[in-house]
Amino acid sequence: MVMRILFAALAFAAVGSMSVAPAAPGLRGWTSKEIPRAEGALRVMAIVAHPDDADFRMGCLAVKLARQGARVRFVSVCNGNMGHQTMMPPELAARRKREAEAAGRQYGIERYDVLDNDDCSLMPDYERRVEIVKIIREFQPDFIVTHRTCDYHADHRAAGQLVQDAGYLLGVPHWIPEAPVQRRRPVILFATDTFTQPRLLRPDVMVDVEPYLEQWCEGVNCHVSQVYEWLPWDSGYQAELAQVKESKEARNAYLIRHWAGRKKNDAKRFAGEWKARYPDTPVPKYIEVFEVSEYGRTPSADDLARFAGLLK
Question: Which pairs from 307-311 meet CB under 8 Å and 24+ separation?
């Protein structure tokens, strides 16, 4: 199945031909024409709050890009030490780091880093800002994916704020001079969410991800402490766990039902936008959706086609 991409109508044009579109409104001077893209593999980095947040939001796209040879890294700013009903925080943090690394291997991504910041207490403070800027400058990504700052979880909001705060500072050479600035600022994108205040997420990029669900399930399956312990207990569907042991197919059906539900629901809620953009293409069953942030470099249509795995 062919992956598809949807650009916001006012911001991007000429999608069908994948030609460079006029720059979208954004921060002055941060256009894709400023500095040409460096040679080499595409670099994509997710900077999110917890181990498993990137998996649920862009895990399928990560699989796709990794298969194409892109360098993909996941960074969890928190160590995940509070996400369990019985396991104590120090042991859980160590366990979740192992789970994240195992998931990364299943996706085929370059690294899955888990930083040592406790859950439920993350703040977008100066120390964390320096930490994030150093990580970004070291990898020099073309794209960064993070949370919007309108979110139910304080850690999600803080992680998103840290990335936005880093956006401009990445290019200030005398701030943290031991970490050299990158030649071209990254595009920052927000992963999908369902929050309505201050407004709904804008679907600047929509990607059909159904062909990658099976491999995605192999990665999500590694987060045992979450998908088979904490989240069923927290959300009240522990009774379903008996079915998971029956077969791989039953396990995958369980994982897709609960953790690809976001992708299925997005395909339904953005079906109108998809049909308007692609009237001759059926609406996919599962999609991953992203909104471009004005705090990063303003992307062209070609930039976002590369992010979606449509153009090298």
Answer: 307/42, 307/44, 307/142, 307/143, 307/187, 307/189, 307/205, 308/3, 308/4, 308/5, 308/61, 308/205, 308/207, 309/3, 309/61, 309/64, 309/65, 309/68, 309/70, 309/207, 310/3, 310/5, 310/18, 311/18
Q: Are the beta carbons of 119 and 249 closer than 8 angstroms?
A: no
Residue 198, preceding bond cis, omega within 30 degrees?
Answer: yes
Contacts of 9 by beta carbon, 8 Å cutoff, 6+ apart: none
pLDDT score, position 59: 98
pLDDT for res 211: 97
Q: What confidence tens digit (pLDDT) does each residue in 233-247 have? A: 999 989 889 888 779
Domain 43-307 has CATH 3.90.640.10: no
Over the stretch 15-41, which tens digit does the pLDDT of each residue have?
332 222 333 444 333 444 455 556 689
Q: Note whether 85 and 230 are within 8 A (CB).
A: yes
CB of 125 closer than 8 Å to CB of 85: no
Q: Which amino acid is at 89?
A: P
> Is residue 264 packed enough to be buried (19+ CB in 10 Å), middle (13-18) or exposed (0-12)?
middle
Q: How far apart (Å, rounded) are the C-alpha atoms in residues 153 and 96?
A: 19
pLDDT (tens digit, 9 = 90+) per residue, 116-147? 999 999 999 999 999 999 999 999 999 999 99
Q: Where are the domains of the chain?
A: 43-307
